[in-house]
């Protein structure tokens, strides 16, 4: 994929020697990479290699886990995300998250989309905002006559698109997606993938996926993580290589990447 002018993709995130631990257990170690604006960056690798842990560093969701500790530098548009005076609530509005399992609020379709703007006491025309966000995710024509219906009555794929619309309603800069199609059928998955590609024209997207074909279909850049074991047998994740997606899949530089792509270990 290539979104916009390939020469104009300023750096959004810069990670330098980022490590994350839960108590005494090191989950991710020494990750250094950059993530560019208006691109889809996929994080791939076997289970337990720290992909989701790293993703949650990018909007400080790990703060919600009492024993989690983040070391190194996580810079967002030149600001140390973990520096003094940085408001995690504001960060999570600028850097939204879409989870593996759709998590609509037990409210109406309309109230799900309007929730964030109402919380911020915005004066915008909420009806217009709801229509715009639902249209952007391809849901408006399916629900326009039933906006008062409970979001929990929608199909799984519709719920996930609604959650993305809810994220868009607070005007984020970045959307983090943690296996957003893992619980969906193939048709709903295709719609989510098409949506990711469309949204990357305006938003920076970081995607965790176990689906290698999905990474090749939607991602501009792909980072491969592998699990290593220390002397005590404890598992930790490390970034092995990060490159434009076509380069990483067609000409990987590390044997571990070649093995993973070939299905020789999971």
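^ structure tokens above, recovered residues below v
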């Amino acid at each position: 994929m290539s979104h916009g002018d390939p020469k104009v993709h300023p750096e959004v995130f810069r990670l330098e020697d980022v490590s994350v631990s839960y108590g005494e257990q090191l989950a991710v170690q020494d990750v250094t990479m950059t993530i560019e604006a208006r691109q889809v960056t996929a994080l791939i690798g076997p289970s337990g290699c720290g992909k989701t842990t790293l993703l949650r560093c990018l909007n400080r969701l790990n703060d919600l886990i009492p024993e989690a500790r983040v070391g190194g530098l996580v810079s967002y548009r030149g600001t140390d995300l973990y520096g003094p005076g940085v408001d995690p609530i504001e960060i999570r509005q600028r850097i939204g998250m879409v989870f593996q399992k759709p998590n609509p609020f037990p409210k109406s379709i309309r109230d799900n989309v309007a929730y964030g703007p109402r919380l911020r006491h915005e004066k915008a025309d909420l009806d217009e905002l709801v229509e715009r966000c639902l249209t952007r995710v391809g849901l408006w024509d399916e629900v326009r006559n039933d906006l008062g219906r409970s979001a929990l009555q929608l199909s799984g794929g519709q719920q996930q698109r609604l959650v993305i619309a809810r994220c868009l309603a607070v005007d984020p800069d970045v959307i983090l997606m943690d296996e957003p199609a893992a619980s969906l059928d193939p048709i709903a998955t295709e719609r989510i993938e098409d949506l990711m590609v469309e949204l990357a024209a305006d938003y920076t997207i970081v995607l965790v996926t176990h689906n290698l074909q999905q990474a090749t279909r939607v991602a501009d850049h792909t980072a491969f993580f592998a699990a290593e074991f220390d002397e005590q047998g404890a598992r930790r994740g490390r970034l092995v290589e990060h490159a434009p997606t076509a380069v990483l899949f067609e000409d990987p530089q590390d044997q571990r990447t070649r093995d993973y792509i070939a299905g020789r270990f999971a």
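DSSP finds ten helices and ten strands in the chain.
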